[in-house]
Design goal:
Length: 346
């Protein structure tokens, strides 16, 4: 018997994975398997079944096509997730979401874009990280209405800032798999843009490698539609997924955002510097702009400038801030064109 949680590419799936020939076509199925043991996990059939079910949901949540043996910890985790799911369903109506904005600046410090980042102020648990609740929102389909709300808020905020004199500012919004796959998604974006009065060029959509690699043909079509509309797209967290380089080279994408794990510690690690340098060269060879995420120190910023990285984003420039605090930050940088400190775009 394999170890608990050792879930992928192991024996239980092997026989299921074999293709089945039906009417001269091969079909293959994948399975998420939950396992419970008698008598450690229960001495009644219903209890054993319930725990095997819990283990199966855990296997599904962790990427499907795996197996999981029941443990007390996963039982507690599932209970917590179910509670969070219930709360998430009401969070939009209860106005518990808000956005923060983080600047992206050119190598010379010029402010060009903000990234909108979602925050959930949970009534009892306080601030919950998007890394924790976005996967649940994705699983339940709630990411679709939540994502639309994000788009509307971010576009509205940008329209206000542009109206206040920051005319060339742009806004980047993160997009999840489920949104990207929906038939009506491009139409939704057009409608939101129109309602806000923004030109399509003011918006940038960020998709992770996983999202674009999931269904290559569909992704190419979708990104092409966005490009035709004049909306830019970026591949987020670049370097952490499993991109096929030949496929990336054919994608109508405008920029690559280098994941912050490569930026962190890069000034002391020649291997990381080489990776960052290679991603920048790759992006430029494919006529894409390259943005470095998670830039925290002046030394990282200087090295990135030396490597000809086009833009930087990170705590060095500013942490993500709510709209009002960002307005104060915008005023504080007004007119400062000196050195590499951020300056406004106009
Ligand atoms: P992301 O899109 O890659 O966003 C960048 C993350 O890095 C943000 O985390 C930001 O707060 C953090 N960050 C920025 N600069 C630094 C830095 O210098 N150092 C460090 N250590 N961190 C930095 P956050 O806000 O927790 O968001 C996490 C992820 O959640 C995002 O990663 C994005 O994938 C997802 N997310 C956030 N908002 C949304 C949304 O509205 N929709 C969707 N689908 N996903 C979202
Ligand atoms: Mg992002
Ligand atoms: Mg990222």
């Amino acid at each position: 018997m394999p170890e608990p949680g050792a879930g992928r590419d192991a024996a239980p799936q092997d026989s299921l994975r074999r293709p089945i020939l039906i009417a001269e076509r091969d079909y293959s199925v994948s399975a998420s398997i939950g396992i419970s043991h008698y008598p450690e996990h229960g001495d009644q059939p219903e209890v054993l079944q319930q725990h095997a079910d819990t283990a199966m949901y855990h296997a599904k949540f962790n990427g499907k096509n795996g197996f999981q043996v029941f443990t007390r910890e996963i039982n507690a985790q599932l209970r917590e997730r179910v509670e969070l799911m219930g709360d998430l369903r009401q969070a939009l109506d209860r106005e518990e979401f808000r956005l923060e904005y983080q600047p992206q600046v050119l190598a010379d410090g010029e402010l060009v874009c903000f990234e909108a980042l979602l925050r959930w102020d949970h009534p009892t648990q306080g601030l919950i990280s998007p890394a924790r609740f976005i996967p649940i929102a994705e699983e339940t389909g709630l990411v679709v209405p939540i994502g639309k709300w994000v788009l509307e808020q971010a576009c509205h905020q940008l329209a206000v800032w542009r109206g206040a004199g920051y005319e060339n500012l742009r806004m980047a919004v993160n997009v999840s798999t489920l949104q990207f796959e929906r038939q009506d998604w491009v139409q939704t974006i057009s409608d939101v843009l129109q309602a806000s009065g923004l030109p399509p060029s003011a918006l940038e959509l960020e998709l992770t490698e996983t999202v674009v690699m999931k269904n290559c043909k569909h992704a190419t079509e979708r990104l092409g539609q966005l490009r035709e509309l004049g909306i830019s797209t970026a591949i987020d967290d670049f370097g952490t997924g499993y991109s096929s380089l030949s496929y990336i080279s054919r994608l109508p994408v405008h920029s690559l955002k280098i994941d912050r794990s490569f930026i962190h510690g890069m000034t002391d690690d020649p291997d990381k510097t080489s990776i960052v340098s290679s991603i920048i060269s790759l992006g430029h060879a494919l006529r894409m702009e390259v943005v470095a995420e998670g830039v925290e120190t002046e030394a990282q910023s200087q090295l990135l400038r030396l490597l000809r990285c086009d833009q930087i984003q990170g705590y060095l420039v500013s942490r993500p801030l709510p709209g009002e605090a960002m307005e104060t930050w915008l005023k504080s940088i007004e007119g400062s064109g000196a050195g590499n400190s951020p300056r406004q775009v106009s």
